[in-house]
Automatic annotation (TrEMBL):
This is TetR family transcriptional regulator. Residues 32-51 bind DNA. It comes from Janthinobacterium svalbardensis. Residues 9-69 form the HTH tetR-type domain. It holds the Pfam family TetR_N. Keywords: DNA-binding, Repressor, Transcription, Transcription regulation.
Length: 185
C-alpha cells in the first residue's frame, strides 16, 4: 500500500527527530533501530523504506539536528546580547540536564569519531557553528575571530560534556559557571 507523499515525508521527519533525540541521549551504539521506530509510534518494518541502514539514519539525523542548532544560532545573531544569551543558555544546567534536546556536539563528539558515516555531517555542523560564532559573536578584541570561535566552542562543548560526566553537582555547576563567565562577562 502506498501512502501519500506528505504522510511519508512526515513519517521520515518524525523518524529523524526521534533518532536525533535518542542518539543525543544514549549515543549511536546505545539505541537500536527498533527503539527509534517504537519512539516514533511506527513499526520496525517501514524503516528500510526511509533509510538504507542505521548508519544512513545516523548521518541524516546528525544533519537534521544540525539544521535546528544552526537556526537557533541564526536567531541569536540579531544582537550582541542575544549572542551572549546563546552562550549562557548553552553552558547551563538546563542544557546539561537535557542532552536529548541539546546540542549534538556536546552529546555525540565522542561517538562521532567512531562512526565514519557520521563524520562528514558532524564536520559540516562544527564548521558551520564556528563560522557563525566567528562572524556574529561580539568579540572584545578582533584578533582572530575564527580562532577565538574555535576556542570558545571547544570550551562550551567541553564544559557541557564534563559537567554531564561528573557525579558532583556543585562541581558540575562550577564548570558551567567558569566557562560561562569566560565568554559572557
Amino acid at each position: 500500500m502506498r501512502y501519500p507523499a506528505a504522510e511519508t515525508a512526515e513519517k521520515h521527519q518524525r523518524i529523524l527527530r526521534e533518532a536525533a533525540r535518542l542518539f543525543r541521549e544514549q549515543g549511536f551504539d546505545g539505541v537500536s533501530v527498533g527503539q527509534i521506530m517504537q519512539a516514533t509510534g511506527l513499526t520496525h518494518g517501514p524503516f528500510y523504506n526511509h533509510f538504507a541502514s542505521k548508519e544512513a539514519l545516523m548521518a541524516e539525523s546528525t544533519l537534521h539536528g544540525s539544521e535546528h542548532s544552526r537556526a537557533a544560532l541564526d536567531a541569536a545573531s540579531i544582537s550582541p546580547e542575544t549572542m551572549r544569551q546563546y552562550v549562557r543558555d548553552y553552558v547551563s544546567a538546563a542544557h546539561r540536564d537535557a542532552p536529548g534536546n541539546g546540542c549534538l556536539l556536546a552529546a555525540l563528539a565522542g561517538d562521532a569519531r567512531k562512526q565514519p558515516a557520521v563524520r562528514p555531517a558532524f564536520t559540516f555542523h562544527l564548521k558551520s557553528i564556528i563560522g557563525k560564532l566567528a562572524t556574529h559573536f561580539p568579540w572584545q578584541k578582533k584578533r582572530n575571530p575564527r580562532q577565538d570561535a574555535i576556542v570558545m566552542l571547544s570550551a562550551m562543548v567541553g564544559a557541557v560534556a564534563l559537567a554531564r560526566a561528573v557525579n558532583d553537582e556543585a562541581f558540575s555547576d562550577e564548570i558551567l559557571k567558569a566557562v560561562n563567565a569566560a565568554f559572557t562577562t
